[in-house]
TrEMBL record:
PANTHER family: LARGE RIBOSOMAL SUBUNIT PROTEIN UL13M, RIBOSOMAL PROTEIN L13. It comes from Thermoleptolyngbya sichuanensis A183. Belongs to the universal ribosomal protein uL13 family. One of its GO terms (biological process) is translation. One of its GO terms (cellular component) is cytosolic large ribosomal subunit. Part of the 50S ribosomal subunit. One of its GO terms (molecular function) is structural constituent of ribosome. Keywords: Ribonucleoprotein, Ribosomal protein. The lineage of its organism: Bacteria, Bacillati, Cyanobacteriota, Cyanophyceae, Oculatellales. The keyword Ribosomal protein applies. This is Large ribosomal subunit protein uL13.
Length: 150
């Protein structure tokens, strides 16, 4: 008899982590953060429950991409009106709203359902080095990505 393990809600421990995105590769950073948000790094991981932790990402304006993504990667948004498609490349969006780049990368790696939307609310992204979540005493989460040149 295979049964899905259901951890008691009192057993689920929520931690806060802070990640410095300076010189981190965007995709590798996003996949690690998505795993922590989802709770896949915990022994009590349950696919259909929110067992993950909160993640704060600082210095989103200093995130790095490889190859020609700075000029060729496009970000689209739509106003909902006919002809309302707005398109920007990576460089323009990074100068305007650097948080949105990291948020969209992480959101794309979460489940596409109500659980994914709930998990996304536990991600806090800030362009600069400061954040207002000092009261939660976040631990530093080190992301092991490949350092190096573009």
């Amino acid at each position: 008899m295979n049964k899905t393990y259901l951890p008691p809600t009192t057993e689920i421990e929520r931690k806060w982590y802070v990640v410095d995105a300076t010189d981190q590769r965007l995709g590798r950073l996003a996949s690690e953060v998505a795993n922590v948000l989802r709770g896949k790094n915990k022994p009590a991981f349950t696919p259909h429950l929110d067992t993950g932790d909160f993640v704060i990402i600082v210095n989103a304006e200093k995130v790095d991409v490889t190859g020609k993504k700075r000029t060729q990667k496009l970000y689209r948004r739509h106003s909902g009106r006919p002809g309302g498609m707005k398109v920007e490349n990576f460089t323009k969006l990074q100068s305007r709203l650097p948080e949105r780049i990291v948020e969209q990368a992480v959101k794309g790696m979460l489940p596409k359902n109500s659980l994914g939307r709930q998990l996304f609310t536990k991600l806090k992204v800030y362009a600069g080095p400061t954040h207002p979540h000092a009261a939660q005493q976040p631990e530093v989460l080190t992301i092991k990505t490949i350092p190096g040149e573009n």
